[in-house]
Amino acid sequence: MSYYNLLSIMPRVTYDPDALAFMTAAGLTDNTQKNALNSLVVNLKSNSLWTKMKAVYPFIGGSATAHKFNLLNPLDTNAAFRLNFIGGITHSSNGILGDGINGASETYFTPNVGYSSQNNLGISAYSTLNNNTGNFTAGVYNSSGSNPIYLQNNYPSSIYAASNSGGGTSYSDTNTLGFYTVSRLSSTTGKIYKNGAFVNNSNATSAPLADLTMAILAAKYIGGSPYINYSNRQLALFAIHDGLSDAEVAIFSTIVNNYQTALSRNVY
Predict the structure, then answer these.
(1) Which of 50, 75, 85, 121 gives 89 a disulfide partner, CB atoms 3.0 to 4.6 angstroms apart?
(2) For the domain 14-262, what is the CATH code?
(3) Contact (CB, 8 A) for 141 and 220
(4) Which pTM value belongs to this model?
(5) DSSP run (H or E) holding 249
(6) CB atoms within 10 A of CB 124
């Protein structure tokens, strides 16, 4: 059999169009990375989670150029929620790492524009570094310094999170490794999850959505400095999404952890 005949019968890999668009924008060439990303997209779609996402940053490719793109709309524009990395951010095959001093990632996502309701919102982060810091994994406040949406990892005492309210929720945590989700689907209750499992409620009433853009590895805040509480967390994925149910969070966690496993950087 000739070489050309052999090529004609070899199976061809067919990628999801949205996954392929991201691969092209990010310049992905490694087959392991491309297959992991494709599975992430396909599984989000098959489980009806893709349309609930506002922005997903899979932090794949190992460079600032690859890491900046939003999986849902991989255009190099603010309107597509492309990330702008500020200050001390280290990029590697493990994702993005903040320096805890001046490193932040600007998302250009404004909650009072991007979310449909103050009672339908959420954020998720996959943390792959175990370190104790009270600083923000991600967050945003109103221009008045109120009505926050944020995720703050801390141990051994607690993890603390707020979901568009003046209050938050905390629980005893033993490390800062894993997939954390903050979700609100009610005017009276926000929830926090770790590795897909519900851990606590926030019973604070929801508030008007923040009018500033959200940051990753810091919080966006007006007053003194546009960013506060820079984090030295390492993230392998970050997502901005609608509020998710308990069942949806569990599925989302499994999909994301399978993605991290395929890239040999899972932590649970």
Answers:
(1) 85
(2) 2.60.120.200
(3) yes
(4) 0.93
(5) helix 246-262
(6) 24
